[in-house]
Design a protein that fits this description.
There is one protein chain. The chain contains 11 helices and 12 strands. 45% of the residues lie in helices and 21% in strands. β1 and β2 form a beta hairpin. α1 (6-18) packs across α2 (21-27), α2 crosses α3 (32-46) and α5 packs across α11.
Length: 294
């Protein structure tokens, strides 16, 4: 007989979305051994494999994909139940799952998030960094409640709302020859050594993809974890950087840097909120969206 409890379903959703039993267990607040045992017992109960295990992590089998749909529906129902019942205890409780690209995550989300959490003490927010293209698919299939991505990406049938304005710019030491330009094409920047974010970051993966489309390699001399560290090496003339204008402008206030807009059409990166159905969201997630839009 097939017997799955809420912990099983929540764990399975986390494992698939993380692509790893280890990371999924951490998200579900379970020890790895306990998580592995639960997954094994789920497969034995069902009589079919739910995950394909490989060196790069795990992915759902056809049975696993079918279970994932139901797991997401059940967990969404639990969230709605928790929200409705919390009204009787005088408070609101719930979890919001957000996917954001690098720019939104580092430059714009912290302030809006802190303001929301200060007035909603019973609400937790889980944030994962993804590329804009990945966010569309994951939000559409129910892996997250909402996403924050580049406005240039096709969001299909998802509902969208404007979030923030931004664009990619060249960042260089003030006396670099390229800083005399009014704008510069990305392909020309690729003639120079670059400093960038860690290759796993959404912004780094996006820029590498643009370099591939231009038929040129990115000469990345150093890759770091945050914008400030990148800008400090640019000031030290280790290389140039391509960053969101919001991050570059903030860094330029305290460092000897110059900023030049990129001329490429894709460099305009106004940020957009995307979700499946605003009216179908729990009230506390609607409140979060309203906070972001304000």
């Amino acid at each position: 007989m097939m017997r799955f409890d809420l912990t099983d379903l929540g764990l399975f959703r986390h494992v698939v979305e993380a692509g790893s039993i280890t990371h999924g267990a951490a998200r579900a607040n379970l020890a790895l051994a306990a998580a592995s045992t639960r997954i094994r017992l789920m497969e034995e109960s069902l009589g079919a494999a739910l995950l394909t295990r490989g060196r790069q992590g795990v992915s759902p089998t056809p049975a696993g994909r079918a279970l994932l749909v139901h797991a997401r529906d059940v967990m969404a129902g639990v969230e709605r139940l928790r929200e409705e019942m919390s009204a009787f205890s005088g408070g609101a409780f719930g979890q919001i799952r957000v996917l954001a690209n690098t720019n939104a995550l580092t430059e714009f989300l912290p302030e809006a998030l802190s303001a929301f959490l200060a007035t909603h003490p019973g609400i937790g927010v889980e944030i994962d960094e993804r590329t804009s293209e990945e966010i569309v698919g994951l939000v559409a299939e129910g892996a997250a409640d909402l996403g924050i991505l580049s406005g240039t990406v096709d969001t299909g049938s998802l509902q969208t709302f404007p979030f923030r304005e931004d664009r990619f710019v060249l960042v260089a030491a003030r006396d670099h020859p390229l800083t005399a330009r009014a704008t510069i094409p990305f392909a020309e920047v690729l003639d120079h050594d670059l400093v960038g974010l860690d290759r796993r970051s959404a912004i780094s993966r996006f820029l590498v993809a643009q370099a591939v489309r231009a038929g040129r390699p990115m000469r990345l001399r150093v890759q770091l974890r945050d914008f400030e560290a990148v800008c400090r090496l640019v000031e030290a003339r280790v290389g140039l950087a391509i960053l969101p204008e919001s991050a570059a402008a903030r860094a330029a206030q305290g460092l000897a840097l110059a900023v030049v807009p990129l001329a490429d059409p894709w460099a305009r990166r106004d940020l957009t909120l995307c979700l499946r159905d605003f009216d179908g969201l729990p009230a506390f997630i609607q409140a979060f969206v309203a906070q972001l839009r304000s």
